[in-house]
Each structure stands twice: as structure tokens, then as C-alpha cells.
Amino acid sequence: MLSQQRYNLIQSIINERNTVTVAELAEALETSESTIRRDLTALDELGKIKKFFGGATKIKQNEGFYEETVSAKENLMSVEKTAIARYAATLINDNDFVYIDSGTTTSRLIDFITNDKATYVTNGITHARKLIHKGLNAYIVGGKVKPITEAVIGAEGVSNLQHLNFSKAFMGTNGIDIEAGFTTPDIEEALIKDAALKHSYTAFVLADRTKFKRVFPVTFSKLENCCIITDMLTDSSFYSETIIKEVKK
Predict the structure, then answer these.
(1) Rounded mean pLDDT of 213-224?
(2) Are residues 28 and 118 part of one domain?
(3) pLDDT tens for residues 146-157?
(4) Does residue 97 form part of some domain?
């Protein structure tokens, strides 16, 4: 395979996955890791991708208003989401008043919850169903339902949160960026997230590595307001912005 062909394939894979390792690229292109490292160095120098030790990530871009459906996102980074969710569940203590945001990783969090002495509030339709099926003490935020994310949003939902004071909040996000903060494509969904965070003592954003260096139209929080639980941090500059916990698969 010619160098330019490899460059095109590598950039295509990185743009699709956001972040990849040298080993993953070597397997996908059926070539040596040393060749991949040289290719990544060349692409980095051309400004096409951002190389880091052991892999590469795509250059930050504004993702626009497009948002995938829940079913489309459910199987993306599945192993990583499971590891993040399993760890997050261990942070719930007896008598906690917990907010669980809509999203595929926060939904997976519920699979690992064992604490039946805490109380749970969510704006996720499927999340509420999973909570009650586990016999947990659960409430759902009222308001407009957004079909694509199966989340409750809108002014009524924001109003529902105004008189609640959570000990912990577990949040989802579409993008994480040092300058833009935590972002999402939807204004109404951002307002729900913002309201929940303002009424939470401690907040955790559950996000795999593909969410970093992505920017969507609406910022709902600065990075400093939330701890991040992720599978792998590929850019150490994020450490200076907030508390970050990396969990292993």
C-alpha cells in the first residue's frame, strides 16, 4: 500500500473514531506499528491529526447540530462505557440524592447500581424504567420528551429541578473541550443539564475518550464544575482544568 493511501485510511479512521491507538491502526491496515508511528508523525506535521504517545486524535472541530440516535450510540465504545459506568456506581453512598442525566453511558451506570438506600432522579425515559425495574426509589423529571435522545427537556423540566438539591449528579456530554467546556447540540437539553448541575453538590461527567476535543453548539458547563470519569485521557493538558479519573477496561 502506498504511503498516501495509508494516510487517507488513517485519517478516515481517526475522523470516524475521534481517537485511536497505534495498535488499533496497525491491525486495521494490516501493517507494522513502526510504519503507523511514522505515518502519524507525518500526518501530525501536516496538521491533519494530533499525535500523542501510543496513538492519535482528530483535530478539534465544531460538530454542528447533528446528533445520533440512542440506538446508534449504544454500541459505540461499549467496553469503555461499561468500565466507566461500573466505577461510577461505586461512588453512590447510602442516603445520597442522585441525579442521573440522559445518555448511553449514564444508562449503563444504572446496570451497576446496587445501593437501594439512595434516591434517584432522572430525565431519561429508559433510565427511569431501568431504575424502577431494579426496585430503586426513583423519580422522573416532567416536561417535553426529545425522541432522538429519549430525554425530558424544556422549561417545565428545568422548573422541576429548581427546588431539588442533589448530593451527586452523573452527567452525559457530547463534547469536552478546554475552551468550550462541556457541550451538546440542543439548547433545551443544555438548559436541563445546567439546571441539574446548579443544584448538585458534586457532579461527575461520564465520557469515553472520543468525547474529548469535540465542540457542539451549546455549552452547559465549564470543565472546572465537574469531575470527569473516562477510560483514557489522550491529552494531559485537561488535567489542569478539573479532576479526572481514568478507569481501565
Answers:
(1) 93
(2) no
(3) 888 889 999 999
(4) yes
